Please model this.
Amino acid sequence: MNTNELSWLETVDIENAPCDFCGSFDAKVLFEGRDRLLGLPGKFYMVQCNKCGLIRQNPRPTQATINAYYPPSYEPFSPAIDDEPPLRRLDRRYGMNKRCRAIIRHHASGKLLDVGCATGNFLYEMSKHSGWQVMGIEPDLHASSYARERLGLDISTCTLQEATLPADTFDVVTMWNVLEHLHRPMAELREVHRILKPGGWFIFSIPNVEGLGAKLFGPLWMGWEMPRHLYVFPRPTLVHMLREIGLEIVDTMCLCGSYPSFLLSLRFYLDDKAPDKAWSQWIVRLAKSLLARVLTAPLFWILDRLQQCSLITVFSRKMGTDSTPRTPAS
Model:
């Protein structure tokens, strides 16, 4: 380890933490890994709770120091869609509109809060649909300031619990690839339940550990993304977590970038198995091509319908006097 890495690691405090759902420390180690996305230093471990099955990173960077692993170049802090080149703009807007249409199919209009809204691109697209009042929460100062100044959105620079929002306020709360980043997901879920109206929707996307990508790539799957992903949620455990706080899963679907997720896992795999090999870089470039995306589109369409995507979107509903949740999707 070089001097720069030692200096970096001195700024990051590490803690041992129990399972956030059941409180147990008893767990088996699944694998050891590193920061494959950004290449920042450190060695990390994914473990699975022997009591409830929840998967977590342990030990892990503390909440006070983990921001060292979220530099401004981190991909979710992306620019406004209208500032992208034409093809990239079309691709990103198509993905955002898939989210918007799916929400409207479940709830036609109302008040929506996006937690961890980053630079606000989803909220901006959602605000274009009539009947929706949108606001966001983003703890990163740079990203939240950008969302306010560039897109004119109502964004608070804080965490959900710091926002102290009134109870029974929102028709929909969304979290796009956020829950897995939280040190205390159960506390966040309880706050979501508190601020939702009875019958309101909590809609969120998380890594799909039951999907084909996790099975195919194993520890090199993009869904682990250590050290930023602190929790990964097997479906049975997730159902129990949500039910405990009064939320019921109504539907699940694949909405979020199956092909980019595959490309990222492929990159991690080739970087690990064939680092600095010209042919591995050629495979990545070929896989990124428009031709490869078009040719593989039918395959990924089928995988999405079978819910074998790497990122799954969950539609859950607050149980209460105004709602009778349907049977959870299998």
